[in-house]
What does this fold into?
Amino acid sequence: MKIKRLAHIGIAVKDIQEVAKVYTELLPLQLTDTEPVGELRTGFIPVGETNLELVMSTTPEGTMSKFIAKRGEGVHHLAFEVDDLDAAVAELKAKGVPLTAEEPWRGAHGARVMFIHPKATHGVLIELCEYPEGH
Ligand code: ZN
It folds into this structure.
């Protein structure tokens, strides 16, 4: 497996526009785009080589709504960009590492994504993502 970079830090939020003010008004950063991903909505704030990914649920029963109800808003996951997601997933499965799904799925910015279960990482939810050519 080859890790190219820390692609983003995912932050669970109740409202992207509200939370983005922290980064655009207290810090000199910009919210560049927001995108629906299933029941979620994501907002990206570039920071050098990496990004902050603000993630909110669009329904009260959504993934982020449940996470926030239990743990509050805050850091949710780290996303590492890999060169070959299928190879990375195969490598982790061969090692018996628990993943949160059987097969990769489509995330924001056209990425294919997979998550390593936090029980295997001392509590940190780790996303592996692969971007389409030229992104
Ligand atoms: Zn993410």
